[in-house]
Amino acid sequence: MNIPVNKLPPELLSRILEHRDCEEDLSASTHVCQYWRSTLTSSPSLWSHLVVESKRDVGRALTYLKRSKSAAIHVWITIDVVQDLDVLQRFTPHISRTRSFSIQGYINVHLASSLLLCSPVPLLEHLEIRAHGGPVRNIDNFPLPSLTELELCLLEHSGSIRISSLFLLFSNCPRLQKIRVRIFDGVLQDLSPHHVTSLESVVDLSYASNVVEGILPCLKLPRLKRLR
Q1: InterPro entries given for it (predicted)?
Q2: 201 exposed, middle or buried (CB, 10 Å; 0-12, 13-18, 19+)?
Q3: What is the pTM of this model?
């Protein structure tokens, strides 16, 4: 305790580690000494960003879930582990405190979304789904009251999705401000005329699809400032 760095207040030590270069730095810091370990493991915000890019990351993510306690979390999951939906089930009990969620890979979007959003998600502000395979079906029955940013990328072999389902997903997000949608040719179906859907909060819309002409006339965007 006579070492100067160990005389730093716990709040300052935690603040320093917020500016770490990589996650390995955080884990290594908990092994410096007992003071550092007790300080860092008692700082939930340090453990709020969970990145799972391979199966070897699952154990670390579960440690982060435990140490983050009740803090809001940000989760990124990619293909290598999504194939095993048991991984997603590990996050389900914590979905109510998730602020941002990104999932991508050769996934069954409908099944993954149902598993993730089976309970209320009052804090979720950013949702990103990038699917390269597996059936999509409908993903329109998930109310997301706090969602402000949605990124939906459905590429080749993603199955099909009805435009009416896509519109209903938008309308279930009353605070939605930014939409990023990229849909591969042949994924969107159901091009029959629809009633106009009003998205009162959307200010930024980016849309890439071969059927964009049939979709935009069905959207009312009174606050739109940017269209791409």
Answers
A1: F-box-like_dom_sf (IPR036047), F-box_dom (IPR001810)
A2: middle
A3: 0.84
